[in-house]
């Protein structure tokens, strides 16, 4: 099993959820983070003063998938969220040793 | 002769009605997604500045100045810059308070009306376009409507139709305009699929509470005097809003076995709208009926009709204000009593006289048509000369950042230390 | 003869007091966990609808109508549907404002009182049960209490006891009822272990500020006229609330070396409660004392007594309103002066006359007993006929979702785009 | 003879002005980081308690009591404990309302003024030090300023300078004091680098709306009567604030092509400040000009001047209140008309008379110097005798936890179930 | 060392904290996420319209434990939070290579 | 590649961002968590009652770095955020198998 962790633009969450729905990927979880990378943020105006916002809100999506589904999932994400402009985000793949469904106690790929 | 009691009453009512506009901004903002909260507040708040300055410069004059050309449609410019409108002399509309105070009381109504309209356009309109739209709408819709209904020699008043606190001028004009404008503007992306995203219900409640309280001043103050009529209007307003809240809760209970805060408060608001035109004309029992019936009507429009015709009246300016306002002027035609307020020349249909009812229907037709046509013209012209919608990317990102470079809660996460 | 100044004053005060109920909803909501915010707001807001309609239909009549049967306990139904309550004629209670305005001013009191009670029941009561409870409570507790204290031929008034703006009728009745009802309802799960979970202190402050401002109208307006007595009440209210805020801050400083916003605002509120019964009877210096002393008393009850007896008075309706109200009526018996308000037949104990004090004590006993017994009956009956508590799972999940399918901040996370 | 209309008006205005102080707390709190929200609210709210009790005990007397020693600088103690200040007799300052009502109306001004000052000190001052500072500041700055401008035999009034609703007494004294105090206190850590951290703009808007509405009562009520002058003040206030909002939006549009809510509301507030001293003296057109011009002036100070001199006027008490107040008193010297209010002995410079303008300039110099010197003395003394700043660690952690052990939104995350 | 990551119902956080306290597990961290899986969410009513909430708030708990304690921890979690109904959540076990206590610089199991 | 995950005091985020800026570490992401460990929280006063806050707000920072940069990063973090008092937090190092830059599709260390 692998954990596919994607950091994406907030406005891409809805399209990505739709893509997953079509591809029948059901389990995932999502949280809000602040990220900084190559993207520079935007200029805000505070009672006249200009201020640079350097940490931008991003969404982190985590999906645990069976080993053989990793590439498909990665591709699906890239296809859905890529805009080609700085700030598109990153995908990280990490090992997961075990997965347990709390409700039933099932383990391994069955539990996904 | 000035009466300090009346001055005190109308002055304080003006303040409380003024409070309604920011209140509306918060009410609206609570209902939108977090990424559009700033844009929503801004779209409402800027009207406080714009409408006031316009009112002083020429708006009051176009609305309440001497009739221009005798058509009863708009005033002339002789009161521009409050020329002839004084804090020390009574105006043409009432004797016991200064003309300038009357002008201020009318101003606070003029501020809140376009602010209602913008609710229909929430979440996708460019702010620059909205600014131009509101300016044009005040000149082409609000001032004429106010003149026709309340101005000297006004067309609608001439029909014998009555409007105590703004059924035609405020509720119907804003609701119908919202509907027309939102259709021309187009729906938000993903409209229908993903519609439930209020970001802050307590904020919505704060705004709703301010609106509710302000409305007592809105209807009560429309008597322009601290007298029996003001009391009649306040009592009616209380009864109608309460009845509408309860009947909305009843609908929800029957349909879903649950009541919601958004539902209950919406019920109260449509109840307030519905009693606005008749507050100073109908007896108490009628208020109970008017309020009790408005919720099912609006509920039907907010759910079935809106879905069926798929217009994106984002924050329900039409569904809440337009529809309830229409019901309110009809109900005034049904239940008004000359004994309560001799400004109405005839009793309502329910009491056996058809004349007032007929006048109300005629006035309603004029108000709906006039607002719809004028708003359509403004929007279509605007669409020709400037970009009125943000791009789909900007819409997805949220109008707060794209239009204002400002967020609602920048350091709220606790991360941004 | 109607006086426009008085009408203006009482009308505007009614609006500001009406504002207190949503204010209380926000005040309460800020103190609960986020998962119960909607339920808390709903539990308070629906009273605006329910109590108003009931008031119009029969509540006013039961409270202020002619005495039924001569027992001085409740009115008869002759004023049902505001029959005989008019916007154009003075009522039996005052000459300078219309009877309907008096009814409205009394209505806004009647709205806020059950809304206070629900604070004790927060976080575990089914909304349907709460709805029934409030309906029954208004009929069986509030209307009789109002009649006994303020109605024509009322029992408590007949004793010579005085209550300027609702010590017995509002504060004690709601506080005692809250205590009794919360004991019968039972504690929240994990009560005592995990008690500190306000989710939004600024919201609490917004509500607190609305309450504070409204209270000036509450006490001032109770003079029913823009006269010397209203001024006396307003000044006393200001002094007492300020003194109570300072003394609460002092307690916190001594005990913890820190002052908190929740503490300071709570201090102000208990100060406001404590001066309510005596606002139009006591001299300024007494207000300073009444307010200064109420905070230690309440602090003691909120901490020691509540802990010791382990009742879960969730938002302290008893601890804040009941206790301070009791202190307030006692203090009125101590410091009232007939010279300030001849409605009091005798001076207070402090000025050497025991009669008023004795009357206050008797009235207090009646009010406490009556509220406690009636509320116990209502709750015990309710428990028999319907489920009054949510299930432990629903309680853990939060009443917002389980009871209303609505959340306080659905799209706040910024995730739910 | 008392006039119920006037009593109603001044009483209600007092309530609305009182509302401004919590409003200011929310306005300020929305602008700070979440970790300092509680401290900010506390710093403003406690003044409601402190200033009220002090006012009753000796503050009113020092401000409005008979002149002490004939210097026109401060009153004596003969009205301590409201001795001679009665709810049933008119005071020395006006005939149509009781002396105690006048004292209350003046009190609500006295509450809000130090609350403005604390905005400059936000985010780094120990609360204990702030408490002492405000106490000392009221005695040494506010009471004398009020006496000099509005008291019997006051020095500044004696020059012929005028101040309708608190240009010198409130805006300039608080703004200048804020500047001086914040310089002595020192900047926040990282000031300049990381300055954009409002945590809750809707909260800021709620506060701003309360301030805006309250200001109509603030300026209108300063007529102390529901008369022509009150109307003049209200109309001027409306026009000036609207004009200032629009001109702030214009500046932002020109510079950034975007308008912000923080900008627009700030514009409205500086407009309100600017018209405060002249509201009851200048004609409507002047209000338009005064408001239209104040935004560029303040914008320049908030951006260029503040940056250049690197003082950390955290929430811009100086930039908004000081500067606009100074412009306001100058503008009053330019545009006042004796025909509008004969309290001004001469017309303004614009109408060809130099005397009022000269008096205003002299008064301005006195007010600025007096506030600056006194505040400096207080702060420097305080620094000697106690710790006035929190430690750098506490500052980084946030003053909410370090100073109050209380957070703004403890259970908001939804985690803390 | 392993990271035990449990996704649970929000209302189970308090009981879980109690269980940990009893079992003397002290170090952990917690965050709020939105999750979707087999569970369907609830129907909300928005001014009359019914809307489906498909992302549900969940709590993610992370505990880093020594290798030999993984099974106990997993068991403890399951025992405490299982209700047997859909939406009970998942547990993932992931490898952790190093742990450092910032205060002292200690590394490895000692640092836990 | 490794994921360096640091749990730090909220007030240390700004200094850490500055350190990273100086060390030219650009990519990272940040979120708010509640943590409990040896640190005991603080006493709050709620209308008179004292209550213990046992879960404290912390910041979690995640940085994915090439294998050879792990030690430097860890050291940098420790140097910047250590106060020597309880509550300083922890650093966890975890394996990452793959990293993809969504914008370009680049993989591996190049994508960081
Ligand atoms: N080395 C990294 N470790 C952890 N998160 C990273 C790293 N680099 C980038 N990120 C995350 O990815 C997001 C997008 O990065 P960015 O550099 O803006 O995109 P792009 O690579 O497309 O230009 C950042 O906001 C940050 O949250
Ligand atoms: N494959 C997965 N990857 C990541 N998170 C998952 C995955 N499957 C489920 N989850 C998380 O677990 C939670 C519970 O899943 P759900 O399917 O509702 O429970 P159950 O398996 O008991 O029916 C979801 O809300 C989601 O956050
Ligand atoms: N075993 C663990 N697993 C996950 N997070 C932990 C663990 N131990 C500690 N933490 C996190 O680290 C933070 C700091 O831990 P703490 O024990 O207070 O610091 P210190 O070790 O410096 O005394 C905690 O708030 C918690 O978020």
Count structural domains of chain A: 1
| CATH architecture annotation name of chain A | 2-Layer Sandwich
Low-confidence stretches of chain A: none
Order of helices and strands of chain B: HHHHHHHHHHHHHH
Radius of gyration of chain A: 17 Å
Strand order of the largest sheet of chain A: 2-5-1-6
Strand content of chain B: under 5%
Tell me the number of strands of chain B. Answer: 0
Description:
The complex is a heterohexamer, with three copies of chain A (112 residues) and three copies of chain B (417 residues). Chain A is built from two helices and seven strands. Chain A is α+β, with helices and mostly antiparallel strands and 112 residues long. Chain A has one domain: 2-Layer Sandwich (Alpha-Beta Plaits), CATH 3.30.70.120. Chain A has a four-stranded antiparallel β-sheet, covered by helices on one side. In chain A, strand 3 and strand 4 form a beta hairpin. In chain A, helix 1 (13-22) crosses helix 2. Chain A is elongated. Chain A starts with a strand and ends in an 11-residue tail after the last strand. The longest helix of chain B is centred in the C-terminal third of the chain and has 31 residues, at 355-385. With 417 residues, chain B is mainly alpha-helical. In chain B, helix 1 (4-31) packs antiparallel against helix 7 (201-221). The structure holds adenosine-5'-diphosphate (3 copies). One adenosine-5'-diphosphate (ADP) sits between chains A (7, 35-39, 56, 58, 86-90) and F (27-29, 62-64, 101-103, 112). Chains A, E, F: It comes from Acetobacterium fimetarium. Chains A, E, F: This is Transcriptional regulator. Chains A, E, F: Belongs to the P(II) protein family.
């Amino acid at each position: 099993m692998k954990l596919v962790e994607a950091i994406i633009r907030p406005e891409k969450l809805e399209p990505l959820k739709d893509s997953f729905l079509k591809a029948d990927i059901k389990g995932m979880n999502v949280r809000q983070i602040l990220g900084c990378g190559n993207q520079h943020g935007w200029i805000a105006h505070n009672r006249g003063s200009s201020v640079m916002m350097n940490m931008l809100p991003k969404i982190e999506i985590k999906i645990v998938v069976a080993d053989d589904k990793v590439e498909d999932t990665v591709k699906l994400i890239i296809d859905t969220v890529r805009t080609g402009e700085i700030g598109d985000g990153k995908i990280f793949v990490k090992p997961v040793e075990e997965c347990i469904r709390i409700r039933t106690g099932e383990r391994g790929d069955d539990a996904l | 002769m000035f009466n300090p009691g009346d001055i005190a009453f109308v002055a304080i009512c003006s303040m409380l009605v003024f409070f309604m506009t920011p209140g509306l901004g918060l009410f609206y903002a609570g209902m939108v997604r977090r990424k559009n909260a700033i844009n929503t507040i801004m779209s409402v708040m800027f009207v406080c500045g714009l409408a006031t300055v316009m009112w002083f410069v020429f708006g009051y004059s176009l609305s309440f100045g001497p009739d221009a050309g005798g058509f009863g449609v708009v005033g002339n410019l002789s009161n521009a810059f409050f020329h002839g409108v004084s804090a020390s002399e009574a105006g043409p509309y009432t004797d016991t308070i200064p003309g300038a105070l009357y002008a201020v009381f009318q101003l606070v109504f003029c501020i809140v009306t376009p602010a209602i309209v913008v609710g229909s356009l929430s979440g996708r309109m460019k702010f620059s376009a909205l600014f131009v739209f509101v300016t044009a709408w005040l000149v082409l819709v609000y001032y004429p409507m106010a003149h026709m209904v309340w101005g000297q020699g006004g067309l609608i008043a001439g029909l014998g139709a009555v409007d105590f606190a703004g059924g035609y001028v405020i509720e119907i004009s804003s609701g119908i305009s919202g509907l027309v404008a939102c259709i021309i503007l187009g729906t938000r992306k993903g409209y229908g699929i993903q519609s439930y995203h209020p970001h802050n219900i307590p904020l919505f409640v704060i705004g709703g509470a301010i609106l509710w309280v302000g409305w007592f001043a809105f209807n009560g103050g429309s008597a322009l005097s601290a007298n029996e009529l003001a009391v009649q209007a306040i009592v009616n307003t209380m009864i109608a809003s309460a009845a509408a809240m309860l009947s909305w809760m009843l609908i929800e209970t029957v349909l879903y076995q649950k009541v919601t805060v958004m539902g209950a408060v919406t019920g109260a608001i449509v109840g307030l709208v519905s009693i606005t035109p008749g507050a100073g004309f109908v007896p108490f029992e009628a208020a109970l009926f008017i309020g009790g019936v408005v919720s099912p009507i609006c509920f039907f429009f907010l759910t079935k009709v809106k879905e069926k015709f798929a217009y994106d009246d984002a924050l329900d300016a039409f569904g809440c204000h337009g529809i309830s306002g229409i019901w309110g002027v009809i109900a005034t035609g049904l239940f008004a009593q000359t004994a309560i307020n001799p400004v109405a020349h005839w009793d309502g249909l329910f009491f056996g006289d058809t004349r007032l009812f007929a006048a109300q229907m005629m006035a309603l037709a004029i108000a709906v048509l006039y607002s719809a046509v004028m708003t359509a013209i403004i929007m279509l012209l605007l669409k020709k000369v400037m970009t009125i919608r943000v791009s789909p990317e900007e819409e997805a990102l949220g109008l707060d950042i794209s239009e204002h470079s400002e967020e609602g809660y920048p350091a709220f996460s606790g991360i941004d230390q």
